[in-house]
Design goal:
One of its GO terms (molecular function) is transferase activity. The chain has twelve helices and ten strands. The chain is of the alpha/beta class and about 300 residues long. It has two domains: about 200 residues, Spore Coat Polysaccharide Biosynthesis Protein SpsA, Chain A (Alpha-Beta Complex); about 70 residues, no CATH class. Strands 1, 2, 3, 4, 5, 6, 7, 8, 9 and 10 form a ten-stranded mixed β-sheet that branches. α7 packs parallel to α8 and α11 packs antiparallel against α12. The model has no long low-confidence stretch (mean pLDDT about 95).
Length: about 300
Protein backbone atom coordinates (compact mmCIF):
# COMPACT_ATOMS: atom_id res chain seq x y z
CA UNK A 1 0.00 0.00 0.00
CA UNK A 2 1.25 3.50 -0.87
CA UNK A 3 1.52 5.70 2.18
CA UNK A 4 3.80 8.45 0.87
CA UNK A 5 4.21 9.80 -2.67
CA UNK A 6 7.58 11.31 -3.54
CA UNK A 7 7.28 13.99 -6.24
CA UNK A 8 10.33 14.73 -8.39
CA UNK A 9 10.12 17.45 -11.05
CA UNK A 10 12.96 17.26 -13.53
CA UNK A 11 14.25 19.09 -16.58
CA UNK A 12 17.42 17.97 -18.38
CA UNK A 13 18.91 16.33 -15.29
CA UNK A 14 19.65 12.89 -16.76
CA UNK A 15 23.10 13.06 -15.18
CA UNK A 16 21.91 13.56 -11.59
CA UNK A 17 18.46 11.93 -11.70
CA UNK A 18 19.81 8.40 -10.95
CA UNK A 19 21.21 9.66 -7.65
CA UNK A 20 17.78 10.96 -6.65
CA UNK A 21 15.94 7.81 -7.77
CA UNK A 22 18.36 5.48 -6.03
CA UNK A 23 18.09 7.45 -2.79
CA UNK A 24 14.33 6.82 -2.85
CA UNK A 25 14.68 3.15 -3.71
CA UNK A 26 17.15 2.79 -0.81
CA UNK A 27 14.64 4.03 1.78
CA UNK A 28 14.18 2.00 4.95
CA UNK A 29 10.43 2.62 4.55
CA UNK A 30 8.88 0.70 1.66
CA UNK A 31 5.34 2.08 1.40
CA UNK A 32 6.10 4.73 -1.21
CA UNK A 33 5.63 5.60 -4.85
CA UNK A 34 8.05 7.83 -6.75
CA UNK A 35 6.29 10.12 -9.24
CA UNK A 36 8.84 11.59 -11.65
CA UNK A 37 7.49 14.46 -13.73
CA UNK A 38 9.60 15.24 -16.80
CA UNK A 39 9.04 18.90 -17.64
CA UNK A 40 9.88 18.60 -21.35
CA UNK A 41 13.48 17.39 -21.10
CA UNK A 42 15.52 17.20 -24.28
CA UNK A 43 18.22 14.90 -22.87
CA UNK A 44 18.12 11.18 -21.94
CA UNK A 45 15.79 11.58 -18.96
CA UNK A 46 13.18 9.14 -20.30
CA UNK A 47 15.82 6.47 -20.93
CA UNK A 48 17.22 6.94 -17.43
CA UNK A 49 13.82 6.31 -15.83
CA UNK A 50 13.07 3.37 -18.12
CA UNK A 51 16.28 1.76 -16.84
CA UNK A 52 14.68 1.15 -13.42
CA UNK A 53 12.46 -1.92 -13.24
CA UNK A 54 10.40 -1.00 -10.20
CA UNK A 55 6.60 -0.71 -10.12
CA UNK A 56 6.82 2.02 -7.49
CA UNK A 57 8.24 4.45 -10.07
CA UNK A 58 5.71 6.38 -12.14
CA UNK A 59 6.93 8.54 -15.05
CA UNK A 60 4.93 11.46 -16.41
CA UNK A 61 6.08 13.62 -19.30
CA UNK A 62 4.85 17.15 -19.94
CA UNK A 63 5.02 18.94 -23.27
CA UNK A 64 7.26 21.99 -23.21
CA UNK A 65 9.18 23.40 -20.27
CA UNK A 66 6.54 24.76 -17.90
CA UNK A 67 8.37 25.34 -14.63
CA UNK A 68 9.04 23.33 -11.49
CA UNK A 69 5.77 24.12 -9.71
CA UNK A 70 3.73 23.13 -12.76
CA UNK A 71 5.55 19.79 -12.72
CA UNK A 72 5.11 19.41 -8.96
CA UNK A 73 1.38 20.08 -9.27
CA UNK A 74 1.04 17.43 -11.96
CA UNK A 75 2.82 15.02 -9.65
CA UNK A 76 0.57 15.89 -6.72
CA UNK A 77 -2.53 15.29 -8.85
CA UNK A 78 -1.17 11.89 -9.91
CA UNK A 79 -0.16 10.90 -6.38
CA UNK A 80 -2.05 8.24 -4.46
CA UNK A 81 -0.30 8.49 -1.10
CA UNK A 82 -1.68 9.76 2.19
CA UNK A 83 1.41 11.96 2.42
CA UNK A 84 3.40 13.88 -0.19
CA UNK A 85 7.16 14.48 -0.11
CA UNK A 86 9.30 16.42 -2.56
CA UNK A 87 12.71 15.62 -4.03
CA UNK A 88 14.39 17.65 -6.76
CA UNK A 89 16.23 15.64 -9.38
CA UNK A 90 19.70 16.81 -8.34
CA UNK A 91 19.23 16.13 -4.60
CA UNK A 92 19.01 12.97 -2.53
CA UNK A 93 17.38 11.54 0.58
CA UNK A 94 19.19 9.80 3.40
CA UNK A 95 17.85 6.26 4.01
CA UNK A 96 15.57 7.03 6.98
CA UNK A 97 13.94 10.15 5.49
CA UNK A 98 10.53 8.64 4.68
CA UNK A 99 10.42 6.36 7.73
CA UNK A 100 11.10 9.28 10.07
CA UNK A 101 8.66 11.70 8.42
CA UNK A 102 5.82 9.18 8.15
CA UNK A 103 6.25 8.15 11.80
CA UNK A 104 6.14 11.80 12.88
CA UNK A 105 3.01 12.57 10.86
CA UNK A 106 1.28 9.46 12.16
CA UNK A 107 1.94 10.63 15.72
CA UNK A 108 0.89 14.27 15.25
CA UNK A 109 -2.69 15.60 15.31
CA UNK A 110 -4.37 16.71 12.08
CA UNK A 111 -3.73 20.35 13.00
CA UNK A 112 -0.17 19.79 11.75
CA UNK A 113 -0.16 19.95 7.96
CA UNK A 114 3.37 18.65 7.58
CA UNK A 115 6.83 18.07 8.99
CA UNK A 116 10.27 19.20 7.90
CA UNK A 117 13.90 18.44 8.74
CA UNK A 118 17.45 19.66 8.19
CA UNK A 119 19.73 18.89 5.27
CA UNK A 120 23.39 18.92 4.31
CA UNK A 121 24.56 21.31 1.58
CA UNK A 122 27.09 20.30 -1.08
CA UNK A 123 28.60 21.89 -4.13
CA UNK A 124 29.74 18.88 -6.14
CA UNK A 125 31.76 16.81 -3.68
CA UNK A 126 32.54 19.83 -1.47
CA UNK A 127 30.61 19.86 1.80
CA UNK A 128 29.44 23.39 2.59
CA UNK A 129 27.78 22.63 5.91
CA UNK A 130 24.39 21.78 7.43
CA UNK A 131 21.10 23.62 7.33
CA UNK A 132 19.85 22.33 10.65
CA UNK A 133 16.41 22.57 12.24
CA UNK A 134 15.10 22.70 15.80
CA UNK A 135 12.55 20.25 17.13
CA UNK A 136 9.07 21.61 17.62
CA UNK A 137 6.01 23.47 16.38
CA UNK A 138 6.29 26.23 13.77
CA UNK A 139 3.44 28.71 13.32
CA UNK A 140 2.65 31.28 10.64
CA UNK A 141 4.12 34.08 12.74
CA UNK A 142 7.45 32.23 12.86
CA UNK A 143 7.31 31.78 9.09
CA UNK A 144 6.76 35.52 8.72
CA UNK A 145 10.25 35.96 10.14
CA UNK A 146 12.07 33.31 8.11
CA UNK A 147 11.66 30.41 5.71
CA UNK A 148 12.14 27.98 8.57
CA UNK A 149 11.73 24.70 6.60
CA UNK A 150 13.81 25.89 3.63
CA UNK A 151 13.91 23.91 0.39
CA UNK A 152 11.05 21.62 -0.68
CA UNK A 153 13.40 18.67 -0.06
CA UNK A 154 12.81 19.09 3.68
CA UNK A 155 9.03 18.79 3.77
CA UNK A 156 6.53 15.96 3.89
CA UNK A 157 2.89 17.08 4.05
CA UNK A 158 -0.52 15.50 4.32
CA UNK A 159 -2.00 15.10 0.83
CA UNK A 160 -5.28 16.51 2.16
CA UNK A 161 -3.73 19.96 2.71
CA UNK A 162 -3.86 20.68 -1.03
CA UNK A 163 -7.66 20.38 -0.92
CA UNK A 164 -7.66 23.11 1.71
CA UNK A 165 -4.91 25.52 0.60
CA UNK A 166 -4.82 24.83 -3.14
CA UNK A 167 -2.05 23.93 -5.56
CA UNK A 168 1.50 25.23 -5.50
CA UNK A 169 1.64 28.73 -7.01
CA UNK A 170 2.82 28.32 -10.61
CA UNK A 171 3.27 32.09 -11.08
CA UNK A 172 6.01 32.49 -8.46
CA UNK A 173 9.32 33.57 -10.01
CA UNK A 174 11.27 32.43 -6.93
CA UNK A 175 10.60 31.52 -3.28
CA UNK A 176 8.15 28.86 -4.48
CA UNK A 177 8.62 26.76 -1.37
CA UNK A 178 8.32 29.72 1.02
CA UNK A 179 5.10 30.96 -0.57
CA UNK A 180 3.53 27.53 -0.13
CA UNK A 181 4.60 27.29 3.52
CA UNK A 182 3.10 30.70 4.27
CA UNK A 183 -0.17 29.69 2.64
CA UNK A 184 -0.18 26.31 4.39
CA UNK A 185 0.42 28.01 7.73
CA UNK A 186 -2.83 30.00 7.42
CA UNK A 187 -4.65 26.72 8.09
CA UNK A 188 -2.11 24.40 9.73
CA UNK A 189 1.01 24.32 11.88
CA UNK A 190 4.24 22.67 10.78
CA UNK A 191 6.50 20.52 12.93
CA UNK A 192 10.28 20.62 12.79
CA UNK A 193 12.29 17.45 13.26
CA UNK A 194 15.66 18.13 14.81
CA UNK A 195 17.54 15.83 12.46
CA UNK A 196 19.21 15.94 9.03
CA UNK A 197 17.61 13.61 6.50
CA UNK A 198 18.66 14.78 3.04
CA UNK A 199 21.45 16.20 0.92
CA UNK A 200 21.02 19.30 -1.25
CA UNK A 201 23.40 20.13 -4.10
CA UNK A 202 23.93 23.72 -5.20
CA UNK A 203 24.37 24.26 -8.92
CA UNK A 204 25.82 27.07 -11.00
CA UNK A 205 22.52 27.47 -12.90
CA UNK A 206 20.40 27.78 -9.75
CA UNK A 207 17.56 30.31 -9.73
CA UNK A 208 19.23 31.75 -6.62
CA UNK A 209 21.71 33.53 -8.92
CA UNK A 210 18.92 35.15 -10.96
CA UNK A 211 18.59 38.67 -9.53
CA UNK A 212 15.47 39.52 -11.55
CA UNK A 213 13.72 36.33 -10.36
CA UNK A 214 14.66 37.08 -6.74
CA UNK A 215 13.27 40.61 -6.96
CA UNK A 216 10.06 39.49 -8.67
CA UNK A 217 9.60 36.71 -6.14
CA UNK A 218 9.92 39.20 -3.29
CA UNK A 219 7.27 41.46 -4.87
CA UNK A 220 4.94 38.48 -5.26
CA UNK A 221 5.48 37.43 -1.64
CA UNK A 222 4.61 40.92 -0.40
CA UNK A 223 1.46 40.95 -2.55
CA UNK A 224 0.33 37.57 -1.21
CA UNK A 225 1.62 37.59 2.37
CA UNK A 226 2.71 41.12 3.24
CA UNK A 227 0.56 41.07 6.38
CA UNK A 228 2.86 38.55 8.07
CA UNK A 229 6.33 39.35 6.68
CA UNK A 230 8.54 41.08 9.27
CA UNK A 231 11.54 43.42 8.98
CA UNK A 232 13.75 40.42 9.67
CA UNK A 233 12.34 38.65 6.61
CA UNK A 234 12.71 41.77 4.42
CA UNK A 235 16.30 42.04 5.67
CA UNK A 236 16.96 38.46 4.62
CA UNK A 237 15.76 39.28 1.11
CA UNK A 238 18.29 42.12 0.83
CA UNK A 239 20.97 39.89 2.36
CA UNK A 240 20.41 37.22 -0.27
CA UNK A 241 20.37 39.83 -3.02
CA UNK A 242 23.68 41.11 -1.70
CA UNK A 243 25.22 37.65 -1.87
CA UNK A 244 23.82 37.12 -5.36
CA UNK A 245 25.30 40.38 -6.66
CA UNK A 246 28.64 39.56 -5.02
CA UNK A 247 28.74 36.13 -6.66
CA UNK A 248 28.19 37.92 -9.97
CA UNK A 249 31.10 40.28 -9.21
CA UNK A 250 28.82 43.32 -8.69
CA UNK A 251 30.43 44.42 -5.44
CA UNK A 252 29.07 47.99 -5.14
CA UNK A 253 25.48 46.80 -5.59
CA UNK A 254 26.15 43.94 -3.19
CA UNK A 255 27.33 46.36 -0.49
CA UNK A 256 24.19 48.48 -0.87
CA UNK A 257 21.94 45.45 -0.42
CA UNK A 258 23.91 44.23 2.60
CA UNK A 259 23.70 47.68 4.19
CA UNK A 260 19.91 47.60 3.76
CA UNK A 261 19.82 44.20 5.43
CA UNK A 262 21.75 45.55 8.41
CA UNK A 263 19.44 48.55 8.79
CA UNK A 264 16.38 46.32 8.84
CA UNK A 265 17.80 43.59 11.12
CA UNK A 266 20.97 44.84 12.84
CA UNK A 267 21.48 41.81 15.13
CA UNK A 268 22.29 39.31 12.36
CA UNK A 269 26.11 39.04 12.24
CA UNK A 270 26.46 37.58 8.74
CA UNK A 271 25.66 40.73 6.68
CA UNK A 272 28.42 42.55 8.59
CA UNK A 273 30.91 39.83 7.64
CA UNK A 274 30.04 40.07 3.96
CA UNK A 275 29.87 43.86 3.93
CA UNK A 276 33.41 43.95 5.32
CA UNK A 277 34.72 41.40 2.81
CA UNK A 278 32.71 42.46 -0.24
CA UNK A 279 35.65 44.20 -1.93
CA UNK A 280 36.95 41.69 -4.46
CA UNK A 281 35.84 38.19 -5.45
CA UNK A 282 38.71 36.79 -3.39
CA UNK A 283 37.85 38.67 -0.20
CA UNK A 284 34.16 37.82 -0.67
CA UNK A 285 35.03 34.12 -0.98
CA UNK A 286 37.00 34.40 2.27
CA UNK A 287 33.92 35.86 3.95
CA UNK A 288 31.79 33.00 2.67
CA UNK A 289 34.30 30.50 4.04
CA UNK A 290 34.19 32.25 7.42
CA UNK A 291 30.39 32.10 7.49
CA UNK A 292 30.36 28.39 6.65
CA UNK A 293 32.84 27.71 9.43
CA UNK A 294 30.71 29.57 11.96
CA UNK A 295 27.56 27.78 10.82
CA UNK A 296 29.25 24.40 11.19
CA UNK A 297 30.42 25.31 14.69
CA UNK A 298 26.98 26.44 15.86
CA UNK A 299 25.12 23.70 13.94
CA UNK A 300 22.99 26.00 11.74
Amino acid sequence: MTTVSVITPTYNRAETLPRAIESVLAQSYGGFEHVIVDDGSTDDTAAVVEGYDDDRIEYLRLEGNNGANVARNEGIRAASGKYVAFLDSDDEYYPRKLETCVAALESLPETYGGVFHGYDIYRGEEYLGPEATHEGRVTRSALGEANVPGSFITTTVRASVFDTVGDLDEAMASSQDYEFYLRLAREYDLYGLGTILARHYRRADSISLDVAARREGKTQLVERHGDVLTDRRHAHHHYLLGLTHAKRGEMATARRELARAIRLHPTNPFPYVHLATCVTPRTFAAGMDAKRLVKRLIGR
